[in-house]
């Protein structure tokens, strides 16, 4: 029977081609006025038809559907039932959208005849179980959305026959466990989301047969524990999302993921990240683990991650030494804030030559190394430390440096070497710093924050003066540059200026 249907499709395609070659006017043989269901919007796509019936209040399927329909969108209607074989003549249909209806069940023959269907969207309905009988013969289906339903369990046979399935959405349902056996028969899967459920544990070998899986979303569950081998077999996985769960321990099971590039486990209850935590993940590019009560991070935790671009360690109060980042030389953004670090390694820029942004605020740093090797750096934030001296060579040869924040330290003087390209300089809160800065040494400066208001006088042009350094200076809390219209915010015991644009 299936062979005869396939032959019929070939014959129809041939006849269409003959008709078109014989001089059929227009873009194809279809007439969108006569082949389009009432109220729907149809578009002629060569020999096939795209049918859009979104949000039209339909309580049943439209009766007039062209056999040449390749795309059918019936989302946001009031459908409660799909009659048996109602779509069986749509052999060219590749995408069917039924999201946002009132479907509670789908009968066995609802999708009969849809041999070419690749995308099926059933999200935002009222399904309580996977319509496995209806899905069974959709052998070319690649994408299936079942999210935002009321599915509480997924039996082993739920996806039997879906030999080509690549993308599966089961998020925002009522699942309490990973459907291990149902997933095991889908080796072609590339992306799975089980987010927004009530899963509490991921067992060992939960995804063992999914060797082609690239993306796995498990966020917004109630996951408290992970089996030590729960991610075994995921040799192709690149993205793992464990955000917003109840994990108290670092997920050591990630060591089985050699191709992992993006790891997210923020907003959990993890208190420490152990030494060599990422030893099995040399391909990591980004790690997100903020909003955890992390107190301790091993000194060698982030070694030998050559692809890592961004690292943020905020509020880990038990860190007393700067992390050893040997072999992690592609970092572009590094933030280590709110720790008890008091010194920085002298070879920091030898290890991190590609740094663009460096945030070391809210630490106990007393002395600074030279940043001369960080030639790509654009922003350095060192505010709220214990720095009492800046050596003359600290910022030399940093031609890309635009923003420097040394506010709230113990400085009594600041060298001008390396400041010629700065546009933003913050020195407020250094109460021992009382001298003015030479404006001619800061030709590109646009914003400055100083401990005392008088220190900004060097940047202020008198009324009517044709100054070489035309700046606007106001002493009210909020003022506006009449040329640019930009607001200037003044902080207590601090002067701020905004350089005026020349006409």
Describe this structure in words.
This protein has 503 residues and is mainly beta. Among the domains are: 1-159, Leucine-rich repeat, LRR (right-handed beta-alpha superhelix), CATH 3.80.10.10; 175-294, Alpha-Beta Horseshoe (Leucine-rich repeat, LRR (right-handed beta-alpha superhelix)), CATH 3.80.10. The protein has helices at residues 2-21, 32-35, 132-135, 180-184, 348-351; strands at residues 41-45, 48-52, 69-73, 95-97, 119-121, 143-145, 167-169, 191-193, 201-202, 215-217, 225-226, 239-241, 262-264, 272-273, 286-288, 296-297, 310-314, 333-337, 357-359, 379-381, 403-405, 424-426, 447-450, 471-472, 478-480, 487-489, 495-499. The strands form 5 sheets. The protein has a 12-stranded mixed β-sheet, with no helix packed on it. A 9-stranded mixed β-sheet has the order 17-18-19-20-21-22-23-27-24, with no helix packed on it. The longest helix has 20 residues, at 2-21. The radius of gyration is 32 Å and the shape is elongated. Residues 1-28 and 462-495 have low confidence and may be disordered.
> Termini, distance in Å?
80 Å
CATH topology of the domain at 1-159: Leucine-rich repeat, LRR (right-handed beta-alpha superhelix)
Number of E strands? 27
How would you name the oligomeric state of the polypeptide chains in this document?
Answer: single chain
Major pleated sheet: 12 strands, mixed
The CATH architecture of the domain at 1-159 comes to: Alpha-Beta Horseshoe
Find the CATH superfamily of the domain at 1-159: Ribonuclease Inhibitor
């Amino acid at each position: 029977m299936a062979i005869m249907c396939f032959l019929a499709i070939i014959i129809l395609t041939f006849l269409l081609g003959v008709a078109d070659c014989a001089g059929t006017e227009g873009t194809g043989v279809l007439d969108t006025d006569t082949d389009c269901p009432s109220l729907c919007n149809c578009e002629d796509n060569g020999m096939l038809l795209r049918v859009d019936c979104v949000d039209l209040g339909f309580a049943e399927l439209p009766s007039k559907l062209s056999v040449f329909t390749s795309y059918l969108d019936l989302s946001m209607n009031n459908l409660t039932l799909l009659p048996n074989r109602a779509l069986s003549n749509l052999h060219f249909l590749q995408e069917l959208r039924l999201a946002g209806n009132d479907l509670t069940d789908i009968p066995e023959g609802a999708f009969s005849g849809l041999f070419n269907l690749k995308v099926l969207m059933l999200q935002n309905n009222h399904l309580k179980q996977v319509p496995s009988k209806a899905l069974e013969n959709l052998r070319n289906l690649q994408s299936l959305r079942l999210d935002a339903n009321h599915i509480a369990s997924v039996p082993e046979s739920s996806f039997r026959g879906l030999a080509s399935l690549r993308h599966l959405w089961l998020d925002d349902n009522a699942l309490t466990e990973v459907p291990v056996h149902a997933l095991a028969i889908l080796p072609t899967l590339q992306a799975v989301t089980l987010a927004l459920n009530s899963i509490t544990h991921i067992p060992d070998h939960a995804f063992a047969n999914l060797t082609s899986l690239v993306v796995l979303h498990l966020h917004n569950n109630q996951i408290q524990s992970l089996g030590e081998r729960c991610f075994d077999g995921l040799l192709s996985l690149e993205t793992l999302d464990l955000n917003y769960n109840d994990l108290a321990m670092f997920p050591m099971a990630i060591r089985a993921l050699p191709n992992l590039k993006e790891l997210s486990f923020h907003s959990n209850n993890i208190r420490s990240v152990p030494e060599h935590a990422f030893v099995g993940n040399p391909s990591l590019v980004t790690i997100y683990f903020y909003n955890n009560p992390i107190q301790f991070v091993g000194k060698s935790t982030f070694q030998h991650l050559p692809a890592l671009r961004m690292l943020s360690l905020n509020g880990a109060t038990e860190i007393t030494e700067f992390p050893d980042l040997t072999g992690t030389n592609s970092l572009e953004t590094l933030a280590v804030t709110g720790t008890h670090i008091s010194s920085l390694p002298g070879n920091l820029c030898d290890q991190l030559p590609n740094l663009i942004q460096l945030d070391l605020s809210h630490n106990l740093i007393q002395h600074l190394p030279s940043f001369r090797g960080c030639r790509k750096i654009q922003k350095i934030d060192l505010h709220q430390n214990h720095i009492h001296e800046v050596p003359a060579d600290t910022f030399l040869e940093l031609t890309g440096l635009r923003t420097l924040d040394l506010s709230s330290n113990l400085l009594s003087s600041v060298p001008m070497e390396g400041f010629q390209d700065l546009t933003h300089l913050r020195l407020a809160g250094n109460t021992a710093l009382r001298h003015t800065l030479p404006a001619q040494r800061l030709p590109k400066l646009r914003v400055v924050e100083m401990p005392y208001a008088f220190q900004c006088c060097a940047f202020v042009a008198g009324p009517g003066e044709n100054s070489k350094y035309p700046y606007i200076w106001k002493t009210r809390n909020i003022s506006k540059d009449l040329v640019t219209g930009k607001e200037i915010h003044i902080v207590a015991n601090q002067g701020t200026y905004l350089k005026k644009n020349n006409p």
